[in-house]
Fold this sequence. Notes:
- With 225 residues, the chain is of the alpha/beta class.
- The chain folds into 2 domains: 1-28; 64-224, Spore Coat Polysaccharide Biosynthesis Protein SpsA, Chain A (Alpha-Beta Complex), CATH 3.90.550.
- Helices cover 26% and strands 16% of the residues.
- It has helices spanning 3-28, 79-95, 142-153, 197-200; strands at residues 69-75, 103-110, 124-126, 160-164, 184-187, 217-224.
- Strands 3-2-1-4-6-5 form a 6-stranded mixed beta sheet, with helices on both faces.
- Helix 2 links the parallel strand 1 and strand 2.
Amino acid sequence: MGWGKMFFTVVITFSAALITYNILISANASFKQEFPGPSSAKRLFSQDPIIKMPLERSNNNNNNKKRLFHTAVTSSDSVYNTWQCRIMYYWFKKFKDEPNSEMGGFTRILHSGKSDRFMDEIPTFVAQPLPSGMDQGYIVLNRPWAFVQWLQQAQNEKDYILMSEPDHVIVKNIPNLSKDGLGAAFPFFYIEPKKYESVLRKFFPQQNGPITDIDPIGSSPVIVT
């Protein structure tokens, strides 16, 4: 066996092991509906620096009433994105009606500007892409623009929305992790506001506090109301 084949085999083996590990960890993780706070000394984030979490209100929700959220996932019409969305929707349906689930409806926001042959398989809203050249080569801008169109034109009866992406795989039923009108998001270790302070200060001036007060979250996964 040549070095090229050996290297390829090692990479494939390592990737498979890593994917398996992440699936097992995700499947056994618990979705705790609680706010981070000063008493949680061992947690990575002791408190939310931007929106001070009302810890005294964390247990005031009516636990007997379900707060259903609508899952919205943006997607292109590429074979890869379509394949991901089909897998995501399959598992969404599997867990939607499980105990403690607050998963409501599901919409694929297709920002290709035209329908495809999976419209009958996956609930889909067709959004128009940005005009040619407007994204300046950053095609991801089609996602927020597609979300805007969906919010303006679609009929959504749920009070909460889970903004998601095609590569998110649902491994268990999901409760509504937001509380008292405050959103819920996932912190990413690789999002470092300090590295882009000169840009972020345009939107977060000095008087608002240190740049590290900006939460290290992306646009998804996020539950908003």
